[in-house]
Amino acid sequence: MLPWELRGYAPQISGIAQTNATVTVSHSGRVIYQKKVLPGPFIIDDLNQSVQGTLDVKVTEEDGRVNNFQVSAASTPFLTRQGQVRYKLAAGQPRTSMSHQTENETFFSNEVSWGMLSNTSLYGGLLISGDDYHSAAMGIGQNMLWLGALSFDVTWASSQFDTQQDERGLSYRFNYSKQVDATNSTISLAAYRFSDRHFHSYANYLDHKYNDNDAQYEKQTISLSVGQPITPLNLNLYANLLHQTWWNADASTTANITAGFNVDIGNWRDISISTSFNTTHYEDKDRDNQIYLSISLPFGNGGRVGYDMQNSSHSTTHRMSWNDTLDERNSWGMSTGLQSDRPDNGAQVSGNYQHLSSAGEWDISGTYAANDYSSVSSSWSGSFTATQYGAAFHRRSSTNEPRLMVSTDGVADIPVQGNLDYTNHFGIAVVPLISSYQPSTVAVNMNDLPDGVTVADNVIKETWIEGAIGYKSLASRSGKDVNLIIRNASGQFPPLGADIRQEDSGISVGMVGEEGHAWLSGVAENQQFTVIWGDSQRCSIHLPEHMEDTANRLILPCH
């Protein structure tokens, strides 16, 4: 199992939404993540660890307003065990816009890491795209144990554009990452990159060549991200900073600080208070600052009433809200508020409803703003997994954690992993987000099985590697429950403990109790069974063609 310092780092993206908004995350012009968020601060923490570089974040409000900012997704490269080699190969055609059309240019890339010493690895890679773009990288990664992990690498790139000569340049990068167990810090990451004037990343090369725009040439990037819980105060702090300079554009700085904690005041328990500050500054331009404050109090059974205030460079918003949880799968909320820069002071009312199903999360929301706009939107967030054993929609699985496909012999609506995941019409369920490199247990909820359904070996305990798709088949039956008294031709009962098996499959479905009593679950009408005891002694029973009332005992002859 890789220690924390040696794993990839996927960034948290935090921001503030003023309405029921859509957050879109793009990398090199390609959308990699999209999610509906409620008014107020949001945090996205389930991006794939393979994402690296600068990410563009767009927050689209219901009234059409758009807020854009950037975050850095730096990472400390994984280290490799001494003497081992890890590699990754990729080939394809690039896509330079949000459409599905690819360019008529083929690229090939590879990455290699070699465990030179027990805590030291050398790594590098190549990227070749046609005759016009070539790049190579070489670096070293060092695990410093309790001091954390760091890496340093150099990338060389050569770019050929239609109207210019070859442009060749170098880019230098330093990353540092540490998990502080003593203070329970969630993550601390610092990254620095410097690129000379004629260095082009592959994304920058494609943007310049195919989109016919004035691409920005990165000069220097500094990023810092820190998360820190303060347990005695029930307080969580998160901060990040991104500073970028360009060879042909103004420098920019984006910073965010978020704090949230829970307190008890008198008879009021679990009062939630959160605050957030965001700022974006472009050189020679005014700062865009946003301040957010929220207070939420529990009310009734599962409900919460809240107030939040948001102040930006252009407006101030006040909002009262009510949110309620119907059960573990359904929740809803309503809010009303005022906004200073909108017609009629931005008087508006909003509502939302969320439903979590085995096939993903469903969301519907709507807003009415007086003399301004009205909107209704709906979204689904989930995943789809297909293997040679079957296919199923399931809850979102966007990280690289393992997932487990469970087959129940075509029996539908069997609850797996509590009541979060159910088998579909074909008897397939997928359990996402299973822990990697450590034992994990997935169990059928036997207390919530459909009537007439029986599942054998209902607990799965395995260990999966990162990114694995596991598969397990659970012997399941669906039918009726019957109460039997079994007698042979002479009126005697089979001995206590005799095994009852399906005649066609040989699967054991029960055993004989005292005085020939037996209880069978998940059986079908007109089905045949074999009763076995002793040294291969046996007889057969045959269920009737019609069993309307299975509560009454059936007396069956055993031939």
In brief:
The chain has 559 residues and is mainly beta.
Topology:
Layout: E1 13-17, E2 21-27, E3 30-37, E4 40-44, E5 53-60, E6 66-73, E7 85-92, E8 107-117, E9 120-129, E10 133-143, E11 149-159, E12 167-178, E13 187-195, H1 202-210, E14 218-230, E15 235-246, E16 252-265, E17 268-282, E18 288-299, E19 303-312, E20 316-325, E21 330-339, E22 348-357, E23 360-369, E24 373-381, E25 383-387, E26 390-394, E27 403-407, E28 415-416, E29 421-422, E30 428-431, E31 440-443, E32 453-455, E33 459-462, E34 469-473, E35 476-478, E36 480-488, E37 499-502, E38 508-511, E39 517-523, E40 528-533, E41 537-542, E42 553-558
Parallel strand pairs: 27-34, 36-42
Antiparallel strand pairs: 1-4, 2-3, 2-5, 5-6, 7-8, 8-9, 9-10, 10-11, 11-12, 12-13, 13-14, 14-15, 15-16, 16-17, 17-18, 18-19, 19-20, 20-21, 21-22, 22-23, 23-24, 25-26, 27-30, 28-29, 31-33, 32-35, 36-39, 37-38, 37-40, 40-41
Domain PapC-like C-terminal: 486-543
Pfam family, one: Usher
GO cellular component, one term: cell outer membrane
